[in-house]
Design brief:
Glutaredoxin; two-stranded antiparallel ribbon; single chain; alpha+beta
């Protein structure tokens, strides 16, 4: 198995196309080379549901106050991403504890169900948004995604309730837009990826081993 997974197009890009060209689905299909079912399903995930958190109050997964920026790009259905988590999590926690980094966790959707999982990750953060909780929810969603049989909001909500994870629904468009901008700004084409900005220099690392080693080298 390769140490990373190539990303062709993100659901956030599809979301942007839907927003800007909602009257011309055929044009979207031609430009993005994805099926009508894919677009319809993603749109349903992004627009459905009751909203209980205002857009301006939407949580964003950025933590720490260090001078070094670290952005982690992963997909819940990416096996190399899931395999990296046990090794990368303690390193990130240590760097946060030392106030060495400012960490941003960017969900990078590649699988059909990834946007649903990204949505519920944010829903959980709407109730409690700190690094420890964010990593806990990520781990749970990685585990659930590995089962490959939970692809509905009802399924995720049932698991959240069974694990005692509170959540609050809201429109994640503003957060998804920020994710999409970061994905484009950092030119992310594979998961897992990590962008480190230190002293004005930006470096990108791809694959679990290279990412963990790069993070261990930060002071």
């Amino acid at each position: 198995m390769p140490p990373f997974r190539e990303v062709v197009i993100t659901a956030y890009e599809i979301y942007t196309h839907i927003q800007k060209q909602s009257d011309d689905v055929d044009m979207i299909l031609k430009k993005t080379f994805v099926s009508a079912l894919f677009i319809t399903t993603i749109a349903a995930f992004l627009f459905a549901g009751a909203l209980s958190v205002r857009g301006q109050d939407a949580p964003f997964p950025t933590y720490g106050s260090g001078a070094i920026q670290v952005r982690i790009y992963t997909d819940y259905f990416c096996p190399p991403c899931r395999g990296m988590e046990p090794a990368v999590e303690p390193v990130l926690k240590n760097l946060l504890k030392k106030k060495a980094i400012r960490l941003t966790l960017v969900d990078t959707p590649f699988n059909l169900s990834s946007p649903l999982y990204a949505r519920y990750f944010l829903y959980a953060l709407a109730k409690k948004n700190d690094a420890e909780h964010a990593l806990k929810v990520r781990n749970l969603l990685f585990d659930v995604a590995a089962r490959k049989n939970v692809t509905t909001k009802e399924g995720i909500e049932e698991i959240f309730k069974s694990k005692g994870i509170p959540f609050a629904a809201f429109d994640p468009k503003a957060v998804f837009d920020r994710f999409n901008n970061l994905i484009k700004e950092d030119n992310i084409t594979a998961t897992p990826s990590c962008v480190i900005i230190k002293g004005g220099k930006k470096e990108t690392f791809v694959g679990g081993v290279d990412i963990v080693n790069a993070l261990k080298g930060l002071k």
